[in-house]
Amino acid sequence: MASKQSILVLAAVAACLLLLPAATAATSVEYCNKGKQYPLKVSGVEISPDPVQPGKAATFKISASTDKSIEKGKLTIDVKYFFFYVHSETRDICGETTCPASGEFVLSHEQTLPSFTPPGSYTITMKILGDNNEELSCISFGFSIGFVASS
């Protein structure tokens, strides 16, 4: 049986780890249609900070690659809180990366959530559409919103 002192030390270490701000974390990504061969491949998503803090800026960086040259297009972003759609937006792809995009590139999106955003787990579904609305890729990933951080 562990001594009271060793249990207290472990509890203190765990509490310190929970209080440390997370800078950037890799997030697992799933394709919307697992059997489809998308022309744009996503290799990862980084969210900073993780968890996202209400009322503070958060950056979503999507690492991608393609053999085509993307001159223009759009991103459609849908956000769900549990099973409820809570946000939807469309962005110009060239506003999120340098166009023309080809080879390996990063789509970077910054968003400041309202300070009253409820904490918990959210899911983003992002479609990347080409200039003729052809679906270049469709991904889904989760992220967390923490409690309001003290300033």
TrEMBL record:
<dbReference type="InterPro" id="IPR033917">
    <property type="entry name" value="ML_PG-PI_TP"/>
</dbReference>
<feature type="signal peptide">
    <location>
        <begin position="1"/>
        <end position="26"/>
    </location>
</feature>
<dbReference type="InterPro" id="IPR014756">
    <property type="entry name" value="Ig_E-set"/>
</dbReference>
<keyword id="KW-0732">Signal</keyword>
<protein>
    <recommendedName>
        <fullName>MD-2-related lipid-recognition domain-containing protein</fullName>
    </recommendedName>
</protein>
<dbReference type="GO" id="GO:0032934">
    <property type="term" value="F:sterol binding"/>
</dbReference>
<dbReference type="GO" id="GO:0032366">
    <property type="term" value="P:intracellular sterol transport"/>
</dbReference>
<feature type="domain" description="MD-2-related lipid-recognition">
    <location>
        <begin position="29"/>
        <end position="143"/>
    </location>
</feature>
<dbReference type="Pfam" id="PF02221">
    <property type="entry name" value="E1_DerP2_DerF2"/>
</dbReference>
<dbReference type="InterPro" id="IPR003172">
    <property type="entry name" value="ML_dom"/>
</dbReference>
<dbReference type="InterPro" id="IPR039670">
    <property type="entry name" value="NPC2-like"/>
</dbReference>
